[in-house]
């Protein structure tokens, strides 16, 4: 049984259930009245919601791990940071996985994830928009109702902004003085300056970008903590892209995974 907005509010829930909001939604019909969404429309919207929140994250995770396999020196540096964190933790908390509260103590991990999003954003374009009136942008006239899109990947690979933009260099996101994260460069929202916007920007940007960053950092940290990732013999790791729902690896990652030894 669907719940109304008032019922959800009275129960002080964490938020209005997404499906309930779809069931409560009313649209104008052809006769001047209102109608509810059809079952097919609801299924389609739920599918977009689930795909947008899972496929993008798993695609980015594969790109990050592919680069860590290809560039073993980066993987080693990340593992050293994780190992140093492990050594600094108390014995009571030193026998399990990297937890959410540990992630903020791993600046190089965050830099690796940010570089993955800059170099390999899962979506190379935003959802298309249209202008409601003629607009002049940087000397170019965009006519009314023209379709407008933003080239996410090209923004993050602009040589005027990023040195050696096609190279995978997590260090670019760190301050040279103390190794902390450069928060200005690390801004993925476009609020400070648009240098990389893998989640879009403005009021229609991805509402779950914080959750996506958490998932990426959490999985990468624990993957590297527990296992050493190497390429198959004779495999140089092909970073060519292919367009599907997201921009995926043309040749998916196949890696040799071995448990970390105590002396690693």
Automatic annotation (TrEMBL):
Chain positions recorded as heme binding sites: 206
Keyword annotations: Heme, Iron, Membrane, Metal-binding, Monooxygenase, Oxidoreductase, Transmembrane, Transmembrane helix
Molecular function as annotated in GO: heme binding; iron ion binding; oxidoreductase activity, acting on paired donors, with incorporation or reduction of molecular oxygen, NAD(P)H as one donor, and incorporation of one atom of oxygen
Keyword flag Lipoprotein: no
Gene Ontology annotations for the cellular component aspect, listed alphabetically: membrane
Database matches in Pfam families: p450
Biological process annotations from GO: isoquinoline alkaloid biosynthetic process
Required cofactor names: heme
Family the UniProt entry places it in: Belongs to the cytochrome P450 family.
Protein name, per record: Cytochrome P450
Lineage, top ranks: Eukaryota, Viridiplantae, Streptophyta, Embryophyta, Tracheophyta
């Amino acid at each position: 049984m669907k719940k109304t907005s008032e019922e959800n509010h009275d129960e002080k829930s964490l938020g209005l259930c997404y499906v309930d909001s779809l069931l409560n939604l009313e649209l104008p019909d052809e006769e001047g009245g209102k109608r509810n969404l059809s079952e097919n429309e609801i299924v389609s919207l739920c599918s977009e919601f689930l795909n947008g929140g899972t496929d993008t994250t798993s695609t980015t995770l594969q790109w990050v791990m592919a680069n860590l396999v290809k560039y073993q020196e980066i993987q080693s540096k990340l593992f050293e940071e994780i190992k140093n964190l492990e050594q600094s933790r108390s014995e009571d908390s030193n026998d399990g996985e990297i937890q959410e509260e540990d992630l903020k103590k791993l600046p190089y991990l965050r830099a690796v994830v940010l570089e993955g999003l800059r170099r390999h954003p899962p979506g190379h374009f935003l959802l298309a928009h249209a202008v409601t009136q003629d607009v002049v942008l940087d000397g170019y006239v965009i006519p009314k109702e023209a379709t407008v899109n933003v080239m996410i990947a090209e923004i993050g690979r602009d040589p005027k902004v990023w040195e050696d933009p096609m190279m995978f260099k997590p260090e670019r996101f760190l301050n040279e003085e103390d190794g902390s994260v450069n928060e200005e460069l690390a801004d993925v929202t476009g609020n400070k300056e648009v240098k990389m916007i893998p989640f879009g920007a403005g009021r229609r940007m991805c509402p779950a970008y914080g959750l996506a960053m958490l998932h990426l950092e959490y999985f990468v940290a624990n993957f590297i903590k527990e296992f050493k990732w190497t390429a198959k013999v004779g495999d140089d790791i092909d970073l060519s892209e292919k367009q599907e729902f997201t921009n995926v690896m043309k040749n998916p990652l196949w890696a040799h995974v071995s448990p970390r030894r105590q002396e690693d």
